[in-house]
Amino acid sequence: MSALTFVFVINAVFALFVAECALEKANSSSSNEIRFQAKTVPNEFIVTYHSKYNTNVRISFIQRRLSKGNALKWSIVPRHNLAAHYPSDFDILHISDSNGTLIKETLSNVKAHPAVKAVFPQQYVQRWLSSNNTDSSNYNTRHLRGVPREKRVRAGNAQHVSASLHADVLWKLGITGMGVRVAIFDTGLTQNHPHFRNVKERTNWTNEKSLDDGVSHGTFVAGVIASSKECLGLAPDAELHIYKVFTNSQVSYTSWFLDAFNYAIYQKVNIINLSIGGPDFMDLPFVDKVLELSANNIIMVSAAGNDGPIYGTLNNPGDQSDVIGVGSINFDDKIARFSSRGMTTWELPLGYGRIGLDIVTYGSQVEGSDVRMGCRRLSGTSVSSPVVAGVAALLRSGASHKIDLVNPSSLKQVLVEGAERLPNYNIFEQGQGKLNLLKSMQLLLSYKPKISLIPSSLDFTSNYMWPYSSQPLFYGSTAAIVNVTILNGISVTGKVVGQPKWIPDPDNFGRFLNISTSFSSTIWPWTGWMSVYIAINKEAQNYEGIAKGRLILLIECVPIGANKSQQSEVDLPLTIKITPKPPRHKRILWDQFHSLRYPPGYIPRDNLKIKTDPLDWRADHIHTNFRDTYIHLRNSGYYIDVLREPYTCFNPLEYGVLLIVDPEEEFFDDEISSLEYYVYENGLSVIIFADWYNTTVMRHIKFFDENSRQWWIPDTGGANIPALNDLLKPFNISLGDFVGEGHFKLGDHSMYYASGTTLVTFPNNQDDVVIGTNLNDQGESVITNGKSQNLDVKQFVPIMGLFQTNLKFRQPEIIKYQRNSPVVDDNPKLSDISFDHAILKNRILLNEKNERFAEGRIAVYGDSNCLDSSHMEKACFWLLTTILDFAMNSHKSMLLENLNRISEFKQVKRKPLPMRISSSNLKKFSKVIRYIKNPNSRCEKLEWIVGTTLNISKRIELKLDSTEEN
Q1: Whether residue 382 lies in the annotated active site
Q2: Could you tell me which residue ranges the Membrane-bound transcription factor site-1 protease-like N-terminal domain spans (predicted)?
Q3: pTM of the entire structure?
Q4: Interior CA angle at 889 toward 885 and 892, to 5°?
Q5: What would the pLDDT profile of 530-573 be if each residue is shown by its tens digit?
Q6: For this structure, is 585 an active site residue?
């Protein structure tokens, strides 16, 4: 059959099919769950090199650095696998010593070799797949994206993914995946399994002797891709390369993956399915190797993660732009609750996340091959990932005449452009939409190499573009940021030529838009990025309506097989919703700048009861785990801006309230003085929702890091209470280290205090409010492992305060630091910490005179978990609304007035304030401590692109010339 005839047949067949709603069927309510644990391997380190070298060459590099003057015993760990026959870019260095200082010196010596790229600890991962009805996970490393609980299933016959995607249409045309090498990184595959007819190679990268799958997960994934019997896979004739990287005990090591990845490159596999993921996008050995795989024209498909429905929970590597990240839907075309949502959180808090999620497909109660024979059902994005991998194999095998044009970028282009947008779901939930095999096949058969963008347009009037559509822009609002992914289907490498051009639409008020961009100078491998900043200028301060325009980006690259570079233009249309500037009492500024998360630091969970989720990794943004809070505020008529800079970088006269929720970061000296000035002189109000802090509790939730021979202790508590106390000191407000937990009532409202702090000092003015309740001492429970005799005894503690500031009660202009008072626990010598903790210098409060406004108000509540969707037990949105009414309008509700216990609070014995923990590594990644000496670079300065008029006739001529050439 000729290529032209083949294209005609595909187009004709595709026209006969429309999207069908499939019924999700199941006959069991039991479901599988992933649990896992990660550890650092004692005294083992991965040494990575800038290039690949033979074994003897690599060993000589290490010998040169360690042969002289080093008393430590060391060795290179032999790796007995197929990759040992090829050059490698890493070694495993074992050091036989327990002296942490000597080990650190040795590693520094190794790093000094010019061929060495970096040194990382070897990691050990253990995973369990069990069947039950609980949903718990641990989030500190990569793991197989297993099978979360589905609350409801329906009995009936199985729904095959291959049938739902109409794969049989392609099978009848002879498109079955033949000739496509698909690598499956998982738990292996049983020999001579009856479902598979083209297993090319089974390789074992573990320390077990058996190549068989003793878990069943790897067999299931392989079945979804290529089963030829019973539960049919998508590409039954695909050439399967089975990489066993997890043992039957579900254990894996970083080095196993790196060796297996290198071998996959040498074997020239076409597609890799990776049903694993984790939140650590800073795991450089893994991330760099994924980039190398893409650069070698290997298409990688990976699970988005099973941490939904919370936003901002995408897993790596599925959130990388060179990888196809896959989420899950059920057979009713509904987004699966467990499927992770965007945005990516790499870019926070200084920027804004990418879409991250590329596409969604079936992943709920899907049938696949069981470990020996027969079929079983599983759910999870680890199921959706092999669906897309199987589709990728079909697409590649069906476009043999265009095989040279198939690469990680071009395949992603045809997948996302062929996807069907699902109604009622936004871009962070579904990516570019539901996978459509036949349409993507049609697009690939007519494909011509090109540059494209994700998203392809910015329409802030469409609900699909939530959250951009949820709040119109206006003059004075912070710039909206959209991170656009550049897909280069022409070449693995390219570059942006010059600056993007901004073309405002003269007929649609494009002149009202201020546009700025930043972008990756080099596009590699296959992808790049462009950040678009959108703001409204003064001319539109009273305008209600739409403004349009478009950005034009020029990309230069050398096409595959060519010797001469070519330039390609790509357009990004913008449609922006504008509203008149709202009044100050309707405007809230959300403090994102003072949020820290994992990675890179050990920022612990905010809810101490949730032991299975030990790290704070969801970014604490109003569009991630505080999304429900954001929606409530918008529904209440408020406009919310996000502060990505210090307090010295915003105009306080624009906002009624600065909302500080769960801050882990320190504060600059001038932030503290500026905030005091804003409150007293500019009438800005401040609302704080804090979290627990207790250094003894922090030490109790530590774990041992074998590579440094040290305990890894949290860098701060749920919130950084010592830093908050510095910020609030000018107002005579402070918080303590009692960790409270428990259910209680505020009037008729049921409340739950998950893991909160309490008030220690508060102004004693007649009109102020302090509210308390009886809570459990959760800190003592954690410290004693629940064995304390006093656990049933609740204590009355103050948890909330409302303060109306007044100039006559203002603190002195200069508050001198008491040098004989320690600011770090266990370290009374200030000189020992003054360099590392530069932020703890004297606080000099400035008092400049300016236009007078009514003094602002301050409200403090000790627990943010009731606003955080991560593990919310009782929402307190009503309380936030009540506090906002006080902060914005000076109105105290009758409920809060009646609950006022300030008279009792005056008699409470004051406790010492909590201090910073001496072991904190906050200085390594704190934006404040690292940049305290460079105040001029703290505030973002955007350069707006001067709009240009498009020469219409010239662009028409260019398009005509291009058409003639084609």
Answers
A1: yes
A2: 41-123
A3: 0.88
A4: 55
A5: 999 999 999 999 999 999 999 999 999 999 888 999 999 999 99
A6: no
